[in-house]
Amino acid sequence: MKTIARLGLLALLLSIVWAACTHEPDVPPRPAPKPGTTAVDSALLGKWYLAGLGRVGDTTVTPIDSVSYALEIWREGFLYGHYVNGSYTWRGDTIHIKLNAEDEKRMPEQIRRYREALLGVVSYRVDNEHQMRLFYDRGQRYLLFRDQPTTLPKPAIVPQDLLTTWILHGRVYFKDGNKALLRNTETARLRFYADATWVFQLSTGQLTGSFRTDGQSMHFTLTPPSLKTSPSEAYYLRQALERVTSYKIYGNELRLYEGGEETYVTFQKAEIGTGRINEHLCRPWKLVGFGHTADGSVQIPEEGDNLGPRFFMLEFRDNGVLYTRSSTNMLYGDYSVDGQSLRMNVGAGTKVSETKEGKAYIEALHAVERFELQKDGQLKLFYNQGRDYLLFRDGLSLVSSTPPAELLGKWTLAEIHYSARPPVVFKPGEQTITFLKSGYIDIEGYKLFGSIPEDQQPYGYRPWGKENTLFIGWTYFIYNLEGETLTMTNKAAVDGPRYVFKRLRK
User: Fold this and answer.
1) What is each CA distance from 39 to 126, 371, 489, in whole angstroms?
2) Which of 477, 448, 461 is CA-nearest to residue 396?
3) Which of the residue ranges 239-253, 291-305, 360-374 would you say has the lowest mean pLDDT?
4) What's the pLDDT score for residue 326?
5) Tens of pLDDT along 118-149?
6) Is-same-fold flag (279-399; 409-503)?
7) Do 66 and 96 touch, CB atoms closer than 8 A?
8) Distance of alpha carbon 332 from alpha carbon 323, whole angstroms
9) Region 329-342: what's the mean pLDDT?
């Protein structure tokens, strides 16, 4: 009988293990308490993690690795988890669970069986070892939860095809029964290493940790553990990694599945790698037209109703990432430079509703072989064995806002801060910058922002509408302007530098 029982438990185990939720719902504001539940047993409350399956009378518990099966129980009579949002009633040692209706047509079979088990719960027990048992099947079986996630040992497998850099594309999910793609707005690169560690590089810093895989399953551990903070894209990316249960690689695409195969985070392989960059490329560029080397002619794209000044824009970032707007869409990828040679990987992004010029533009980007920076400040990207080229002009002014009067004028560098080291202090007037209405910044006295002394650099105020952002030379800075003090930080640098300027009065 025990063998039969264990086989039954194993069948249920196989049906739900690795089948985490395809979407962890946002926790709503605390609702009003349900009548009759405010006096609930406090031992029930909190966040629990499914650890195993058991049968009454059998001391053996079938363990499962179920970090994704979290169940949060609130005093107000509500509970939340993967596809198991609902309410409960409590009296003595009895508990009954009512789950909210879900679209079972797009729900994996494994999730439906997990819901059925919760709906059949009739009683519970919380022991002194921080374990909770929810008894179902007329009290003959139980779901074992612990107050900490369970981690099971698995074979240490690190597939070679995983060990590269992947560029975040977006998140695929189902909406109203149809597949949808939520494109990322974050510059993000995920790198796997042979020692089973990973680094997720974001524009504002990085996430790190370790991973476990058997070639199919995938679980991420974050170091330090992810904490709930104010909503941000980085916060939701952390949440997505914590929900991942498996992965697949399709050619140059990596999919990290959040349970089942309906919802996943998708990446594109960074085939080019980080490579080298040319700082003079690292700025926004505006397409002038399609050039032909033989006769020197330039075909200018026709302006349409949806073709504003910010379309046909191309931006090279100093981290090897590029962004571009075609006639209707935003695309991104990476690039590397070797002398005048330029390799570009432009693959991530949608290509819906492109105009004729938009399609030609994307095809040309894929075929770029080299570049030339012209004396007049324009940029040529050659393709088709040099017979054709894309002609660009500096587009920083198109994506920047008019700077406020309080930013304009002359500032003297007071201090440079690097992490925990003592600040580097400058005398008034020793190093100065001057913001000009013309869109340039005068730099005097010290190499700064990649410049040479006595140089001018273009700058942008809140480029692309980004709040508290300055683009100087080829670098983005987060700034804070308070009266006579201007603070700027290169957000690509985790430990600084942080520049502190004081307004210089005549």
Assistant:
1) 16, 72, 51
2) 461
3) 291-305
4) 85
5) 999 999 999 888 899 999 999 999 999 988 87
6) yes
7) no
8) 4
9) 80
The two beta strands, 178-183 and 165-175, are antiparallel
Long-range contacts of 355-363 (CB under 8 A, 24+ apart): 355/301, 355/304, 355/307, 355/327, 355/328, 357/290, 357/301, 357/302, 357/312, 357/327, 358/326, 358/327, 358/328, 358/329, 360/290, 361/287, 361/290, 361/301, 361/312, 361/326, 361/327, 361/390, 362/326, 362/331
Question: Residue 497, preceding bond cis, omega within 30 degrees?
Answer: yes
Residue 185 pLDDT more than 60? no
Would you state the pLDDT for residue 285?
A: 92
* Architecture of the 160-269 domain: Beta Barrel (2.40)
Measure the N-to-C terminal CA separation of the chain; round to a whole number of Å: 93
Q: Domain coordinates of the chain in residue numbers?
A: 2-146, 160-269, 279-399, 409-503
Topology (CATH) of 279-399: Lipocalin (2.40.128)
CA 375 to chain centre: 38
Percent of the chain topping pLDDT 90: 20
Average pLDDT over residues 221-228: 59
- The residue type of 197 is T
Q: State CA 234 to chain mean position distance.
A: 5
In the 3-class helix/strand/coil scheme, how is 341-401 assigned residue by residue? EEEEEEEEECCCCCCHHHHHHHHHHHCCCEEEECCCCCEEEEECCCCEEEEEEECHHHHCE
Class of the CATH domain delimited by 409-503: mainly beta
* pLDDT for the residue 21: 37
Kindly give, in sequence order, each residue whose CB lies less than 8 Å from that of residue 124, ignoring residues fewer than 6 positions away.
44, 93, 94, 95, 132, 133, 134, 135
Residue range 2-146 in CATH 3.90.550.10 = no
CB atoms within 10 A of CB 39: 9
Q: What are phi and psi of 179, to 5 degrees?
A: -75, 135
pLDDT in tens, 187-206: 577 888 776 778 787 655 56
**CA–CA distances in Å: residue 133 to residues 72, 90, 95, 126, 390:** 14, 15, 11, 6, 66
What tokens appear for 344 in the block?
């570009």
Dump pLDDT digits (tens) for 228-245.
Answer: 444 455 667 787 888 888
Show the tokens assigned to 438.
């013309």
Q: Do the beta carbons of residue 500 and residue 417 sit within 8 Å?
A: yes
